[in-house]
Design a protein that fits this description.
Helix content is 85%, strand content 0%. By secondary structure, the protein is mainly alpha-helical.
Length: 86
């Protein structure tokens, strides 16, 4: 355990950030799963818009790397476009 006041505050901040980041990552995973498992194109595109927005936000606040966000959006966009063709 930290002794100095500043170290104690930093520990509190780190715990809050960890919880916030875990929540965002969990939401990203569940929305991504919804896009992958959606049956029709309309449902997939609606979920894709949500996950795209959340990926941008997560990259902006540095929960995930911006390149990871970009590659996940590309992967999901290909999935949605394949659903529209079938």
């Amino acid at each position: 355990m930290p002794v100095h006041l500043s170290a104690k505050k930093r520990l509190r901040q780190a715990r809050k950030a960890k919880l916030r980041n875990l929540k965002i990552k969990s939401e990203l995973k569940s929305l991504t799963r919804k896009v992958e498992q959606s049956k029709d194109q309309k449902e997939a595109s609606d979920n894709f818009k949500k996950v795209q927005s959340l990926l941008d936000k997560a990259a902006r606040i540095k929960v995930i790397h911006k390149n990871k966000s970009s590659s996940q959006k590309g992967k999901l966009a290909r999935l949605v476009s394949q659903k529209s063709k079938t």
